[in-house]
Amino acid sequence: MKARVHVTLKTGVLDPQGKAIQHALSQLDFDGVEGVRTGKVFELELTDTDQTHARERVEAMCQQLLANTVIENYDIEIG
Amino acid sequence: MKARVHVTLKTGVLDPQGKAIQHALSQLDFDGVEGVRTGKVFELELTDTDQTHARERVEAMCQQLLANTVIENYDIEIG
């Protein structure tokens, strides 16, 4: 079973990498880019067969390792 | 208009970060994790109003900056 986790910075948390990308895009003459926010994606290959159990495990993985819940949000897609 | 870009490593490209996370998860007693692949997410805030035009621009941004198309794939979600 596949699980995909998106980890993004919480609103209000500064994103210097996003700012740098936004600046670089304007240097490349891409106008009309009002904001860029960066984040991470984790694609997990799990041996689980039950989606509910898999979601609970991935939730625990996010809490313990994949996301810094002080400054990051995460969302989980199973299957 | 919002656009979301997922950038992930092409199949066959080594993902040392993913391997490290997989190892860390097993250290935390998460068994049954057969593989971890990492990637990036870019959330773009665009002034575009036409989705087709926006998709073409984001495609060009990926080709020129957001993705290293030699080793990475990208997919674009608009709206």
TrEMBL record, chains A, B:
Domain of life (superkingdom): Bacteria
Source species: Rhodovibrio salinarum
Family under the similarity heading: Belongs to the PurS family.
Annotated Gene Ontology cellular component terms: cytoplasm
Parts of the chain that traverse the membrane: none
Keywords attached to this entry: ATP-binding, Cytoplasm, Ligase, Nucleotide-binding, Purine biosynthesis
UniProt protein name: Phosphoribosylformylglycinamidine synthase subunit PurS
Localisation per UniProt entry: Cytoplasm
